[in-house]
Amino acid sequence: MDTWNLLEEPSEAWLIPDFLSPDHASSLFKRVQSEVKWQEREIVLFGKRMLQPRLVAWQGDPGKSYRYSGSTWEPDPWSPSVLEIRNRIEEWFREKMDQRGGASFNGVLLNLYRSGSDSMGWHRDNEPELGPEPLIASVSLGAIRRFVLRNREHPESKHVLELPHGSLLVMGGATQRDWEHSLPKSARVQGARINLTFRRL
Ligand SMILES: O=C(O)CCC(=O)C(=O)O
Description:
CATH superfamily: Alpha-ketoglutarate-dependent dioxygenase AlkB-like
Number of strands: 14
Number of helices: 3
Helix content: 10-25%
Radius of gyration: 16 Å
CATH topology: Jelly Rolls
Number of domains: 1
Bound molecules: 2-oxoglutaric acid
């Protein structure tokens, strides 16, 4: 395999910077942006209602609703472009990670960061319906953004990744138990970025 685990076992994070060619990633960016039903949603943070600093959507198989920040989302049907990316990831798992017996995903959380002012705070993808060691496959399209992993027990231990256009980041094992992640704001980033995190509920 032409990539390696950035974390120590039993946590796992692999970055495949050139998962999609730049042209393919650019055409997918446009298609995903126009096909997806993006929403500006409210969350409750420290007892205050506020808009999430990004646009979001949840797509998945029928009945695969997702509970997140106190609300439940029914899935939108898969968009053709999103399904194309999912199939490509599942193919990659069959080719490169056959010792795992492949991977299959039945839902995806989509985030549209309109500029460097949009962001995602520290959190874990540890909703109970994802199981104890969720496998998360995260594709980035558009502007390069900084993604930070921080160890929960030793917060000074951090990994700072720049997620390029067309890249795939895979997190598995104990990563969602032992590490948090975030996508901080950046004054330097002008353009938009779309992120798709495929999951299995
Ligand atoms: O945009 C990203 O790369 C992070 C997305 C994320 O953390 C999530 O969907 O849980």
